[in-house]
Design goal:
The chain is an alpha/beta fold. It has one domain (7-225): Spore Coat Polysaccharide Biosynthesis Protein SpsA, Chain A (Alpha-Beta Complex), CATH 3.90.550. Helices cover 41% and strands 16% of the residues. The protein has nine helices and seven strands; from the N terminus they run βαβαβαβαβαβααβαα. A seven-stranded mixed beta sheet has the order 3-2-1-4-6-5-7, with helices on both faces.
Amino acid sequence: MKKITAENIYVIIPVMNNGRFIQGLLQDIEDNGYSNVIVVDDASEDDSYEKAKAMHAVVLRHTINRGKDAAVKTGIEAAKILQADIAVTMDGDGRHNPKDIRQMIDLIDKGIDVVLGSRFLNGKEMPWPEWLANHLGNFLTWLANGLWVTDNHSNFRAYSRKAIEVIYTENDRYERDSAVLREIHRKRLNYWEVPIEVRQTENSLTRPQRAGLKNSIKTIIRSLIF
């Protein structure tokens, strides 16, 4: 079996208008031992692209805004081309702690296909609309696919080379997270959940709320149907 090293691991970060924060996040990732980072700029109107390039990341750019999930897909395709053995996806607002990557990689190295980060396994309380939307989504995911998870909308995930190759989704805007779970079931991939830290950064605290309870439910249902 090919030994997985840091050179074979790529961290994928979708960003939009994160110029004030992207360099700090990339430095945090590098400080934790990961130098291969793919940043996908989803048509930012600020200097996100230039700031990421200055940090020597692989930076790709959408000329029109296509949504977070499209940016993640672009990053996954780039990881395929770069022959990644493991691809790790994180949010671009700094809320995910790069220290949590290690536990994911260790599980992939032991034969797990997909490792799912869960905000609901760390023992901390969450706002009730987010809690309710997540639990409803977990139930619908189980109902549709027979796949039970504790956090169906976390973007902090790690994928083995096998998973990178076989998972395919058509969703562009906040539906890929659930669609990936459907693919795990369809492709008979094994998976594991790990607790992740959710950091309250200046960026994550001030970013617009992209989906309330109603929108979250609509997203979950659409991803399960289509």
